[in-house]
Amino acid sequence: MIDSELYYDSVDLVAEVTAARSRGGGAADVVADWMKRHGIEAESDGRSAWSVAGNRDATRPTLALIARLDGDIDRYGPSIAALSAVFRGLRDGNNLVFLATTAVGIDDAFKRLPAIDMAVVGTPTGMNPAARGVGDDCAILARAAILGREAVAVPDGALAVPEAVPAVYVGPGTEVAEPTADDLREAMDLLYYMLK
């Protein structure tokens, strides 16, 4: 379960990204600066911000947690909060990458990252998983199914990860409803459980 400090810090991140975007500033730089203030090594190229968890184990797969920076912050902000909190909570001892990116910046960002074996992409799905390039026996989808979640189609306009990377799309909110604070807390806890 995500603790209160991670929750509130991640909500603050979304507020900082929102403020930067309203001033026409670089949201990616804001994300990288926020991570550094929280003791996480991070980089930014202006369109994307990323962090690679230390102590990587080359024998284990690498999972990317990908949040979208462009588009409607009301729809994508909760995924930024949820995925950044999960990364902070689980990065020690796991092969995790956190990437906050734009649709234009994702390809360049992937060139700078270690090989990614699978991705969780924050997209408004009402916390129902959508998969692209993974079988029904995918561990993350199996855990989601255990929690009674129905699989859905990948939403139109979802951030496209490179085709060679299997991806699960999941996040709070839907195309028609903005997520509440309770939805965000549920998303953080569910993602934490699914990835733990």
**N-to-C order of helices and strands:** HHEEEHEHEEHEH
Major sheet description = 7 strands, mixed
- Structural category is alpha/beta
- The value of Rg in angstroms is 15 Å
Instruction: Output mean pLDDT.
Output: 81
Unreliable stretches, pLDDT < 50, 5 or more residues?
none
Portion in helices: 25-40%
Oligomer: single chain
Q: How do the strands line up in the largest sheet?
A: 1-2-4-3-5-7-6
Short description:
The chain is α/β, with parallel strands linked by helices and 196 residues long.
What do these coordinates show?
With 196 residues, this protein is of the alpha/beta class. Helix content is 40%, strand content 16%. It has six helices and seven strands. The chain has a seven-stranded mixed beta sheet with strand order 1-2-4-3-5-7-6. The chain is globular.
Set down the secondary structure blueprint:
Layout lengths: L3 H19 L4 H11 L5 E2 L3 E5 L10 E6 L4 H18 L5 E6 L4 H7 L5 E5 L7 E3 L6 H8 L20 E4 L10 H15 L1
Parallel strand pairs: 3-4, 3-5, 5-7
Antiparallel strand pairs: 1-2, 2-4, 6-7
